[in-house]
Write a structure and sequence with these properties.
15 helices, 18 strands, globular, binds iron/sulfur cluster, Rossmann fold, 7-stranded mixed β-sheet, 460 residues, 2 domains
Length: 460
């Protein structure tokens, strides 16, 4: 048995545990926890309970297990608490650590909980390695713990993707289950492109950059990411990683999870490195990555043509674009510095390159009315008419999550503040309803928002 585990408990949504292929995460491999597990010497396995909910017997831990880490998100925090309590009862010798995106935000409230011994509030690779080796101490970066009643918060340290080992997917016991599903499922829940034959292809996730690619002036107001340096992976290392994954798995489908993969400098270097390192281009596709309208607006015809050729040469088959809204006033509120013309230019560029687009829209943003939602709907319909099967509409009702700018705006409302302002246990469904009440002009008719939510999906 392994001596340490990192567990990713499943999310709760409307009181239901999200496991199996209903889970949002089925096609995204958890490369954050995997990177932590791959960069240490403690034989750590990563268990994703959305995919393998019964892998761990919480009543029966071997006394070999000394450390358990939980990856915490806003959606699974309740499950993390339940799981941690079970471990406290059945295996009180285990040291419990929490890390992941929600800990970056909520560690001050979380560290008061009796269910946890330490929290990683930043990147976890060095912290996990050293806590397990040295025990909790003040020299280890990015951690929080208490010592004789005193709260210890250690210094912050970024990671460098260029020097870390790449995630080792063998540390994830559910890899075969995901592969089987990915080959068999026709609809797909995220990365796979409907209708593509994935027989014999292994799905993987990679990351080419950390941090936010836009400066403080352009931050999206729904974004929960803290101020963080934007560090791009070296293209040389990235190409080498693709090559090694191909050597191991044969043919690979990559979902690239950095916040904006359309960094032209990086992509040009990647193209050169793939050639230099003889990476076989018929053995990989990038079927999911994020791109921003800003990076995809290229006015110069020659440069645009070159960029289209580059995207094709890199086997990029689909890009997720957060269009967010089609009314300039609402767009300005959620995502500064983008205009409607740029949305059209980005769409045309990708369609000209033969690349599919996941077009994402937000509903119930401040000032939303039935008319503004109708404008979004008509635009989504126009996109479908233009791109056909190459366009998939994605939609989301805005959810206020701390510490985003819109969350801060929400806190100005006394009722919202009273209900959500002082707890870390936030229920996504309750938050969604509250967001509609706060921002939708017809707040007494939330059904209108859900009507457009469903209509947008029906376009697919
Ligand atoms: S969502 Fe917007 S603000 Fe957040 S990381 Fe991405 S680009 Fe930056």
């Amino acid at each position: 048995m392994d001596k340490s585990l990192i567990i990713i408990p499943a999310d709760y949504f409307r009181g239901e545990l999200q496991t199996g292929w209903a889970s949002l995460w089925a096609e995204w491999l958890p490369i954050g926890p995997l990177s932590v597990a791959s960069n240490n010497s403690h034989n750590t396995m990563v268990i994703d309970e959305a995919i393998t909910p019964d892998y761990i017997d919480y009543n029966n831990f071997s006394d070999d297990i000394e450390d358990i880490g939980f990856w915490v998100s806003i959606g699974n925090y309740q499950t993390v608490l339940e799981r941690s309590r079970l471990i406290r009862e059945s295996a009180p010798w285990v040291r419990i650590g929490w890390g992941g995106p929600y800990c970056h935000i909520m560690w001050k409230k979380m560290i008061e909980r009796p269910e946890v011994d330490w929290i990683c509030y930043g990147y976890g690779e060095e912290a996990w390695e050293r806590v397990l080796k040295e025990g909790l101490n003040k020299d280890i970066p990015n951690i929080v713990y208490t010592e004789e009643g005193e709260l210890i918060v250690t210094h912050q340290k970024l990671r460098d993707l260029r020097t870390l080992k790449k995630p080792n997917f063998d540390l994830l016991p559910d890899l075969e289950i995901r592969k089987k599903y990915f080959m068999e499922e026709e609809e797909h829940c995220g990365v796979g492109i409907p209708g593509v034959d994935y027989e014999g292809w292994q799905i993987l996730s990679m990351i080419s950059a950390d941090g936010c690619p836009v400066g403080p002036q352009g931050r999206c107001t729904f974004c929960t990411r803290g101020e963080e340096a934007y560090i791009v992976h070296g293209a040389e290392v990235y190409a080498k990683n693709i090559k090694e994954y191909i050597e191991k798995y044969g043919k690979i489908i990559i979902s690239e999870i950095c916040d904006d993969f359309m960094n032209r400098g990086f992509l040009r270097n990647l193209d050169k490195e793939l050639t230099k390192q003889n990476v076989p281009r018929d053995k990989f596709y990038i079927d999911f990555c994020f791109g921003s309208v800003g990076f995809l607006t290229i006015r110069d015809r020659k440069k645009k043509k070159e960029f289209i050729e580059l995207l094709k040469a890199l086997n990029i088959r689909r890009v997720f674009i957060g269009y967010e809204h089609r009314v300039q006033e609402q767009l300005d509120i959620v995502k500064g510095g983008i205009n409607l013309e740029q949305q059209d230019e980005a769409t045309d560029l990708l369609l000209e390159a033969g690349i599919a687009i996941d077009a994402a829209f937000l509903l119930s943003v401040p000032g939303e009315t039935e008319l503004t939602m109708e404008i979004v709907y008509n635009y989504a319909k126009e996109l479908k008419n233009k791109g056909g099967d190459k366009i998939r509409i994605r939609r989301q009702v805005l959810i206020l999550i701390p510490p985003s700018a819109l969350w801060q705006k929400g806190l100005k409302d006394p009722q919202f503040k009273e209900k959500f302002g002082d707890t870390a246990l936030l229920d996504i469904w309750e938050l969604t309803k509250a967001t509609i009440e706060l921002f939708y002009e017809g707040k007494n008719k939330p059904g209108e928002v859900y009507k457009y939510f469903n209509k947008l999906e029906e376009l697919n």
